[in-house]
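[SOLVED] Need 3D model of a two-part complex

Original post:
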Amino acid sequence: MPASDVQRPPETILVVDDDQDMCWALEAALASVGYRVETVDTAQRAIASVAERAFAVAFVDARLPDMDGLRLVDRLRDLRPAMRIVMISGYYLEDDPRISLAMRESRIDGFLAKPFQIATIANAARGNDGGNLRP
Amino acid sequence: MALTPLDHESFFHAVMATIPSSILILDHRLAVLTVNHNFLEKSRSSLDSILGRQLREIFPPAFQDTSLDRQIREVIATGHTLRRQRMTYRAPGVSLRVYSYSICPLQLLGGSRGAILVMDDVTDLLQLSEEVRRTQLHLASIVESAGDLIVSTDPAGTIMTWNAAAEKATGHTLLEARGSKFAEHVEEPHNLEVEACFRGIAEIDDRRSVEWPMRCRGGENIPVSWRLSRMTDASGEVTGVVVVGRNLVEQRAMEAQIRQGEKLAALGMVIGGIAHEIRNPLGVSSAAAQLMRGRIASPALLEECIGKVIAGIDRASVVVESLLRFARPGPIAETTKVNVLDVLKNALMFASGEAAAGTGVEWNPPLAAGAVYAEGVQNLLELVVINLILNAFQAMPNGGRLTIGAWREGRRVVIEIGDTGPGIPEANLSKIFDPFFTTRADSRRLGLGLSVSHSIVRQHGGDVTVRTSPSTGTTFVLLLPVARELDAAAKNKKAS
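Solution:
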């Protein structure tokens, strides 16, 4: 674990994914690089959590049972303009036109395709990925 | 003709005065002996100025290009009547007139011979008939140029006319079609409907169209949408039927193209769903394996990671296996005696990772009730139960109660998998076993689970039914054949 991470107070990251195992994987991966993680399984719960408190980063699954991931992103952006939002998906490829457009329009700050490298997740959480999050 | 009581001269004058033709009587030198009133009127001349004059002197120069002189001489010479000749009269400032004329030989007093020339102005008549002809041609060309098939029949359904579109669509010419029954051109069994239609000709409703495939020359048939209308005469009597058909071949081709496009779009959705279904467990397994490589200190987390790796790979395998079973539904090779309770326990263990927090499991009847044996293939039956249990868990995202049970009923084994979810809406009930049917608008689930389960159970000679209601949830009921040796034993017992 790099020294710089240790010196910072642990930031909390929101993970939005309706797959329990995927939540576990993201939580374990992010915890391993020093983050605290809150997981929710629906868009409605994500909105409620973000409305209640500030998160440094939100990882949002592209397909949620109650809302399209990109729509949720816009709702979260309205609530917390400064929060970094990273889309994570097993459905899209990183060069999908919808994803590229969302990146260009800064609706999302990054995109991660499943399966992913823990190092890439960590970079995405830190925001030093340069916008290109290919595993 | 008995002319005895007639005064011939007075009769002659009466005819000459009243007949609506122009009449000239000429002697053999073509000098005018007499003309009638109509001629004087038409030529705007007086009797005095005409009598005794030569024919060529009294006719306007416009007539002189005709061979009238020669024809009259010939009639006088041969004694043969010349009928219905035609000449045109062109004069400056006057529209073209057309005359029809006949020349008849006459015996004159004193032994000399002459001729009578009878002329009728037929200009208006000709114009009228030309108009009629043109109108007919126009109507015919409308029918011939129409893109729709236009067929006329008599009241019994015998074809009278058949337009170019009908020729083109079927390959049968009008000549071949005329006189045949319209019903003969319609594919069986629809020809019976056609016959019924003509039998009940009074009930023909021209607002309704019917689709009857039409037979073509090569034996193939084309889809045609038909509309029938009665033809009636002035008194309302049915004189025939006009049958107008729209060739649906191109429309069908277009529809097929649209369907193909829709299929491809649907396939795209399905592939997206497959990708998601496989990449999720891959992501979990991969993350867990990466954490292990990081040499985790906590033995509990290590144990958890190993479990997630294996479960993730298993999950991806079930997806791939379901896909393969859908793509290649092969017959079942060899069945064995399968302990159904083992199948249920294995499937539950496999699927339990998908259960939402707050989900309980109830065995009904209790597990202790004893073993139940079915005839089948163990891993296939496990796949079926896994799919049903996963389905039940998905119906209870906020937890609930999963009920599992199995028992024997005569020659059948009954397995029930129930949830306390919201039930299946009536509208979806008929579709739940369709491949790729899913209620998830986001297409996260493939919609293959129930379809594949259904086909596996059918391959076992069994059946799947469902009980559902919004208040109690959904229960899937599997019926499987009881293990063969038990079935045989039961039979032997009965026989002895």
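Edit: The longest helix of chain A spans residues 20-32.
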